[in-house]
Write a structure and sequence with these properties.
One of its GO terms (molecular function) is DNA binding. Its main location: nucleus. It is a single chain. By secondary structure, this protein is mainly alpha-helical. It has three domains: about 1-65, Arc Repressor Mutant, subunit A, CATH 1.10.10; about 75-120, Homeodomain-like (Arc Repressor Mutant, subunit A); about 125-140 and about 150-290, no CATH class. Helix content is about 40%, strand content about 10%. The strands form two sheets. The protein has a three-stranded antiparallel sheet, covered by helices on one side. Helix 4 (about 75-85) crosses helix 11 (about 260-270). The chain starts with 18 loop residues before the first helix and ends with a strand. It binds a DNA duplex through helix 3 and helix 6.
Length: about 290
DNA sequence: AAGCAGGGCAACCGCGAGAAT
DNA sequence: TATTCTCGCGGTTGCCCTGCT
C-alpha cells in the first residue's frame, strides 16, 4: 500500500511563490506560529499550497535572519571541513553557518565549491598512471587539501600532504577494476620502482590506526569496519637508492567526472605515513578511489 | 539581434525516521 | 505491536538569466 499524498495535488498551486503568498504565509506564521502541523497550515493561512511547500518557503526564504549569497572564505572553509567530516548532510552544515539554509549551501556547493575543489584538485586530466616524470600537484593543490582535511587523529597533515605523501579517494567500480587490472598490475610489475604488495583479508576489522593504515569508509554510516578490504602495501625495495626516484615519481589516476561521493571521498580521504600502507573497502562498489603517490 | 548553451537557483519529489494512534 | 501520518532531509528537476556565437 502506497503512502497517502500529503496534499491534494490537483488543487494546490505549484511553482514560484508570489509576493502575496509570501506575505500571507509570513503574516500567518508570525501571528499564529506553525502550530506544529505544516499540512494543515496552508488551509488555515488561506493558501492553496502544499504544506511541504509552505514549510520549504518559510525555512528557506521567509523566516527571519536568512542570508543569501556572498559566502565568505570562512564559510567556505567551514563547509569544506564539515563536508569532509560528515558528507552531504546539508542541514547539519547549515546549523554551523548562521543564517544559511541547507538548500543554499547545497546549491552553493553544487554550483561553485565543488568546481572550485575539482579545479584545484585536478592535475592533468589523464586516466592513466602518469609516468615517472609526470608533474606533481602544485603547491596550491596541497594547500587546498590542507584546508579540506577531515578529522583524522592518527595522521598529521604534514604527513598527508607532502609531495612524497599519498592521497587517496574513491573511484567507480569500473575504474577500480581498471586500476586493479591495469594500473596496479603495471605498478606491481614495474621493475625498479616501488613494489606494491596486494593481499586480501576477509572480514577485516582493522581501521585507521596510528601506524598509518587507513580504511576508507562511508563517513555517514561508518559501516566499513566489517567489510572485506584489500590491503595495498607499498614498500620501497631499497630505501637507500630510491629517494631521488621517489621525488620524481608521481603516479596519478585522475577522473574526469567527479560525482558527489567521489568529491566527498576526495576530501575525506586521508592517507598514510611511515609504512605507506593503504586500505580500501572492496565491498563499496560505488566508491571510487584515486591514488597519488 | 536572434538563437543557443551553460550556470545558478528555487522548488519539487520521494524516502527514512519517528511520533501518533 | 502494527499501521498511519507528518516532518525533515538530500537529490533532482526545470525555469530563468547571462554570456557567447
Amino acid at each position: 500500500m502506497g503512502r497517502a499524498p500529503c496534499c491534494d495535488k490537483e488543487n494546490v498551486k505549484r511553482g514560484p511563490w508570489s509576493p502575496e503568498e509570501d506575505a500571507k504565509l509570513k503574516d500567518y506564521i508570525e501571528k499564529q506560529g506553525t502550530g506544529g502541523n505544516w499540512i494543515a497550515l496552508p488551509h488555515k493561512a488561506g493558501l492553496r499550497r502544499c504544506g511541504k511547500s509552505c514549510r520549504l518557503r518559510w525555512l528557506n526564504y521567509l523566516r527571519p535572519n536568512i542570508r543569501h549569497g556572498d559566502f565568505t572564505e570562512e564559510e567556505d572553509k567551514i563547509i569544506y571541513s564539515l563536508y569532509a567530516s560528515i558528507g552531504s548532510r546539508w542541514s547539519v552544515i547549515a546549523a554551523h553557518l548562521q543564517g544559511r539554509t541547507d538548500n543554499d549551501i547545497k546549491n552553493y556547493w553544487n554550483t561553485k565549491l565543488k568546481k572550485k575543489l575539482i579545479a584545484s584538485m585536478a592535475p592533468p586530466s589523464h586516466h592513466h598512471l602518469a609516468t615517472a616524470t609526470s608533474s606533481s600537484p602544485s603547491p596550491s593543490h596541497y594547500n587546498m587539501i590542507n584546508s579540506l582535511l577531515p578529522y583524522n587523529p592518527s595522521v598529521s597533515t604534514n604527513q598527508l600532504l607532502t609531495p612524497q605523501g599519498m592521497m587517496m579517494t574513491m573511484m567507480g567500480q569500473q575504474q577500480q577494476q581498471l586500476l586493479y587490472q591495469e594500473d596496479m598490475g603495471s605498478l606491481v610489475n614495474s621493475a625498479n620502482s616501488n613494489k606494491f604488495i596486494m593481499s586480501h583479508q576477509e572480514h577485516s576489522q582493522e581501521q585507521s590506526t596510528n601506524n598509518g593504515i587507513m580504511l576508507l569508509s562511508d563517513v555517514r554510516s561508518g559501516s566499513s569496519t566489517t567489510s572485506t578490504v584489500t590491503r595495498v602495501k607499498m614498500e620501497h625495495l631499497d630505501h637507500h637508492h630510491h629517494h631521488e626516484e621517489d621525488e620524481r615519481s608521481m603516479s596519478s589516476v585522475v577522473m574526469e567526472d567527479y560525482g558527489m561521493e567521489e568529491i566527498k571521498q576526495l576530501i575525506s580521504s586521508s592517507c598514510t605515513s611511515s609504512n605507506n600502507s593503504l586500505w580500501f573497502d572492496e565491498n563499496k562498489t560505488e566508491d571510487k578511489f584515486m591514488l597519488y603517490y
